[in-house]
Specification:
This protein is of the alpha/beta class and 486 residues long. It has helices spanning 24-36, 51-57, 92-95, 112-129, 150-156, 204-211, 220-225, 229-232, 236-244, 277-290, 312-324, 337-349, 362-371, 387-394, 404-409, 415-420, 433-447, 450-461, 468-482; strands at residues 7-12, 41-48, 61-66, 74-81, 84-90, 103-104, 107-108, 139-143, 163-167, 175-176, 197-198, 201-203, 214-217, 248-250, 299-306, 328-335, 354-358, 374-377, 397-401, 426-428. A nine-stranded mixed beta sheet has the order 3-4-5-2-1-8-9-13-14, sandwiched between helices. The protein has a six-stranded parallel beta sheet with strand order 17-16-15-18-19-20, with helices on both faces. A three-stranded antiparallel beta sheet has the order 10-12-11.
Length: 486
């Protein structure tokens, strides 16, 4: 008897690691297909053919074409790249331009709503029609607002293909005016509060939340938070309605534990929980790379976008006390110029204890997690966060605000957890400079007890942050929607 074929999922996103990455979304899109494969799901990822992507993918095969995709011809090309089964939307009038995927010179592309509506339209047509090589998905997985219109296009086409809408960050919604409905092929008759309308405008993300078969987000706590006015960004009612119908699922992200493996990382010195000697050598190397003196307290790292959401202002207020208590900090990131300048001023004030690199450097980020004692993540909100998971894996104890996925993945070093050997880091519920300063002081105190610090580090490094459990949750949800294959 022939074995059943693998079920097919089309993952639709604006970025995918390692081909193109601006944040954690790309890591998830790039890692989930491999985690789903042994569970019976074969994935293809559809993303735009930005110039940076075209330069990496090599030979391709044309599998879908239209003469008019919102203003010009477009072709979907299939290839295998970096272990991914990839389909790229080659539409030069939309994606062949300088700058990043969303902006140039700090300004969003004015036609972003059109560009990513086109991505969603192509995904929906592939789900309805299939591709030229005979492939058609059993389910479509749409990521964030850039793919938010996929479920809507499927609904308006009368397609039976189910869709899952995953919210990585609800703060970004893809909003545009109702005068653009015709240009993105959406019906004006559905411009109503229960569907496309959002405070007199159109929200691509809201459309996906309303029309998808199921909604997921990237941690259990974030799923709860999204149903509140504080975190819902005006969509809390939509989220609460899906939750009340049992159609909202919080599935925490994982990390690619082959890429993020301190025992075999090509970017740093090898070590593990069982062979920790390399951790000290990596720490010494990181201090030298940033030109810092060896601190008497913990060496902390910050790898983040420099924004208000990420709590950079809290760091600027709390770090001087941490440094005076014996700590040191290395920062890698870019963002708001005011924060970049203020961190530069902090480094000038404490030249032997603060090092700052503006920009992003993937190999350097690996070396920073490897060499750090602490990784600081004081975000005001954080849907899931991957930084703290990298920290756990590399024995850089996460010190986090107790919100979203940070709360779900880090066990605070309370007296009870220390006694039970279940602590994996530090968390603070009072999300402000005082709460962060208190957590930093607790970290300095624990660091003075070398044996206790080593126990927490060992527990952190043995935490399973892989995609294993999360992929199983996605596979179960997908199977529920698709049902038995005929």
């Amino acid at each position: 008897m022939a074995s059943p074929r693998k079920r097919r999922v089309l993952s639709v996103a604006s970025e995918c690691a390692p081909l193109l990455k601006t944040g954690g979304l790309a890591d998830v899109v790039g890692a989930l297909p491999a985690a789903l494969k042994p569970l019976g799901w074969k994935s293809r990822v559809l993303m735009p053919a930005y110039p940076a992507v075209i330069s990496r993918i090599g030979r391709t095969r044309r599998v879908w074409h239209t003469d008019d995709l919102f203003g010009g011809p477009a072709t979907v090309r299939r290839c295998t790249a970096d272990g991914l089964h990839l389909m790229v939307l080659d539409a030069p009038h939309l994606f062949d331009r300088p700058g990043g995927p969303y902006s140039v010179d700090g300004h969003d592309h004015a036609d972003n709503h059109l560009r990513f509506a086109a991505l969603s339209w192509a995904a929906a047509r592939i789900a309805v029609e299939g591709t030229g090589d005979g492939w058609r998905p059993d389910l479509v997985h749409a990521h964030d607002w850039q793919a938010g219109l996929v479920p809507s296009y499927l609904k308006y086409a009368g397609s039976p293909v189910p869709s899952v809408m995953t919210v990585h960050n609800i703060a970004f919604q893809g909003i545009f005016g109702p005068d653009q409905l015709d240009s993105v092929r959406l019906p004006s008759w559905d411009f109503v509060p229960d569907a496309l309308e959002y405070h007199g405008l159109v929200s691509s993300l809201k459309a996906g939340l309303v029309h998808a078969s199921r909604v997921t987000t990237v941690s259990r706590t974030y799923a709860e938070e999204l149903a509140t006015p504080e975190f819902g960004f005006g969509l809390e009612g939509v989220i609460a309605a899906r939750r009340d119908r049992g159609e909202l699922h919080g599935i925490v992200n994982g990390i690619d534990d082959a890429v993020w493996d301190p025992a075999a990382d090509p970017h740093t010195l090898p070590f593990s929980a069982d062979e920790p000697a390399g951790k000290r050598a990596a720490r010494d190397a990181l201090l030298a790379e940033f030109g810092l003196a060896a601190p008497s307290g913990p060496l902390a790292v910050v790898v983040t976008r420099l924004t208000h959401q990420k709590g950079v202002d809290l760091l600027l207020e709390a770090l001087p006390g941490f440094i005076e208590a014996g700590g040191a900090v290395a920062v890698l990131g870019s963002g708001e110029s005011g924060y970049e300048n203020a961190l530069g001023d902090l480094a000038a004030r404490f030249p032997s204890a603060v090092g700052v690199r503006i920009g992003y450097d993937e190999p350097l980020s690996h070396r920073m997690y490897a060499g750090a004692d602490l990784v600081l993540v004081p975000s005001r909100f954080e849907p899931c966060g991957l930084t703290q998971l990298y920290g756990l894996r590399y024995g850089a104890l996460p010190l986090v605000a107790s919100t979203g996925g940070l709360r779900d993945t880090v066990a605070d070093a309370t007296a009870e957890r220390l006694a039970a050997d279940t602590a994996t880091g530090f968390a603070f519920a009072d999300i402000g400079a005082a709460g962060l300063a208190d957590a930093l002081a607790r970290a300095v105190s624990l660091y003075a007890d070398a044996a206790a610090w080593q126990r927490v580090r060992n527990r952190a490094m043995r935490t399973d942050s892989s995609w294993s459990a999360s992929a199983q949750a996605y596979a179960s949800l997908f199977a529920e929607l698709v049902g038995p294959l005929r």
